[in-house]
């Protein structure tokens, strides 16, 4: 009995890996459709996931405006529909809006039809507010299943070069600012979060993130960079 059970467990683990870890690693490292670092020029894309949030997104937008930063927001579809005023403000202030599924659900837990529904609902909700098609997608937690690339074929999929852990309970503004400085480089795509209500996140973590942005964006080295949307970052400049 022991040997067959062992084989069953091994087979189950292999199947789980084939649905989760393997496609995620393959997409992140091998797929030409998954964008990460931009061209080698003094531009950085700050990206913000999991919003919009009625408390923290307005505070974040104030900071971005103060430092003349253009950013990209990967929003949750159902939150966008609940807070259309924030989506409109993001758009009006020159930022870019992508989607992060209709609900903050890992693609590891979605079969193809459910994932398709998540993408369609999220894109439709955002487009109904902005009047523009959604072209950018970031999978929640950066998780891919074997069907993610095909189901998201109409979108540009954006990952990151750095994700400094701003959602953690013990993170301080000073430590996070240091991590942001360490991540600062030509063509970097840095992922932060303007909502703390997702699984694994500390509820008030975005307040610390916003404080850290003041420290990061106000220093002399950051002043040497242009902070742009991901579409601007990836655009080839004419010679």
Automatic annotation (TrEMBL):
Domain of life: Bacteria
Pfam families, A to Z: Polysacc_deac_1 (PF01522)
Leader sequence segment: 1-27
Parts of the chain that traverse the membrane: none
Keyword Signal appears in the UniProt entry: yes
Molecular function GO labels: hydrolase activity, acting on carbon-nitrogen (but not peptide) bonds
Keywords: Signal
Gene Ontology terms: biological process: carbohydrate metabolic process
Keyword Cell membrane: no
Gene3D superfamilies reported for this sequence: Glycoside hydrolase/deacetylase
Name this polypeptide is given: NodB homology domain-containing protein
């Amino acid at each position: 009995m022991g040997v067959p059970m062992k084989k069953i467990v091994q087979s189950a683990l292999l199947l789980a890996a084939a649905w989760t870890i393997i496609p995620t690693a393959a997409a992140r490292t091998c797929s030409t459709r998954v964008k990460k670092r931009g061209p080698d020029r003094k531009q950085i894309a700050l990206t913000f996931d999991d919003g919009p949030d009625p408390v923290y997104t307005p505070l974040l937008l104030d900071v971005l405006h103060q430092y003349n930063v253009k950013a990209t927001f990967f929003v949750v579809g159902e939150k966008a529909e609940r807070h259309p005023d924030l989506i409109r403000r993001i758009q009006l202030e020159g930022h870019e809006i992508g989607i992060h599924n209709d609900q903050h659900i890992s693609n590891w837990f979605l079969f193809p039809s459910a994932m398709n529904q998540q993408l369609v609902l999220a894109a439709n909700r955002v487009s109904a507010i902005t009047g523009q098609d959604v072209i950018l997608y970031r999978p929640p937690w950066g998780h891919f299943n074997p069907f993610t690339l095909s189901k998201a074929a109409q979108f540009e999929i954006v990952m990151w070069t750095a994700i400094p852990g701003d959602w953690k309970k013990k993170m301080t503004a000073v430590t996070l600012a240091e991590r942001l400085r360490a991540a600062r480089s030509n063509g970097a795509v840095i992922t932060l979060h303007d909502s703390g209500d997702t699984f694994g996140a500390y509820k008030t973590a975005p307040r610390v993130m916003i404080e850290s942005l003041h420290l990061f964006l106000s220093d002399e080295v950051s002043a040497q960079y242009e902070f742009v949307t991901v579409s601007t970052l990836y655009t080839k400049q004419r010679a």
